[in-house]
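[audit] Reproducing an earlier prediction to check determinism. Same input, same settings, fresh worker. If the tokens differ from the archived copy the diff job will pick it up downstream; this log only records the rerun itself.
[audit] input (153 residues):
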Amino acid sequence: MVEHKIIASNKKAAHQYDIIEKLEAGVELKGTEVKSLRLNRVDLKDSFARIEKGEVALYNLYISPYDKGSYNNADPRRVRRLLLHKKEIIKLIGKISQKGLTLIATTLYFNDKGRVKIELALAKGRKLYDQREKVKKRETDISLRKAKSFRQK
């Protein structure tokens, strides 16, 4: 397994969405944005991707301006282009065209070569009652495991 230096992760994504498939993409960044990422000054919370004009764009990724960047700093909330092969984009267009599916950002990290990558998830949003049901099921599973281990002792 290859080690990645995780910059940020979207912990609520697994709770709010049913994740169907994951894929990796590169992110087109400015120089001062990379320096800010090395300081972990990023917010991935509400990030999502859209396909526009044959390109994938990432929205709502907040990268804090670099302190020593002065006029070189880019807009912290600008739309960033994601780097994917044309075949991957065509596959994504086919999958996203299904009703209710969206691309959400789950993890932002540096790969082994030091390049910034983002893990996107093809996901379907959950209703509030589905979220509560999943939590309830997890709690009952935990209590069943505890009871089972208690009986075995």
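[audit] rerun output stored. Observation attached for the diff report: The domain at 5-126 is CATH 2.40.280.10 (Small Protein B; Chain: A;).
[audit] end
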